[in-house]
Write a structure and sequence with these properties.
Keywords: Endoplasmic reticulum, Fatty acid biosynthesis, Fatty acid metabolism, Lipid biosynthesis, Lipid metabolism, Lyase, Membrane, Transmembrane, Transmembrane helix. By secondary structure, this protein is mostly helical. It has nine helices and two strands; from the N terminus they run αααααααββαα.
Length: 222
Amino acid sequence: SFTMNTYLFVYDLMQFCGHSWIFTNMIIRFMTFGKDSLADTFHSIGLVMRLCQLLSVLEILHILVGIDKSLLLPRFLQITERIIVLFVVINSQEEVQGKYVVCVLFFLWNLLDVVRYTYNMLARMGIYYLPLTWLNFSLCILLYPRSVLAEGFAIYVSLPYFESFGTYSIKLPFPFTFSIYFPYVLKMYLLVLFAGMCFIIRNLFSERMAHLGTGNIKNKRS
């Protein structure tokens, strides 16, 4: 309906503004301060980044109620992996926040999202530019695996701090005889992360074929 389409357009616009601000801020800071800006990335843009990622949880609801026709599982995996890495790993360990991998990760996330939300906004109005469509469904295939590698590396560099500080590790009281050692949980999650990456990449190729197939290109040109 017109109301739902307007709501989705406003949602995409909000996300576009947020990610564009982050992306522009990162570039300006790097051009101004050089490598010194990398270690301060999280403290400069972390709040807006967290707000944008929390807002993205609504996309799962959009699919569940049927106003977004995207597949649920791939989108759920992509949103979940970002939430876990951002809030559980980076936000909880101040020592990790200054690592260069955080800057690389934020750059990849925001570059992908600026393109995606631009495409989505125009699509809500029935506007399809072939170069933007090609960029949206091709750039993700190129950059998404790299973002997952950056997420995996962020988890890897965080392990010594989780081991030292015991963050999220729980020793259950009597009569339970076992404890939850969080670094082991993160190591198991790494396997899930890369397994999910293979599934999502296959879905990205399917989406690219569906939108950039010969027949679809002709229809959008006409």
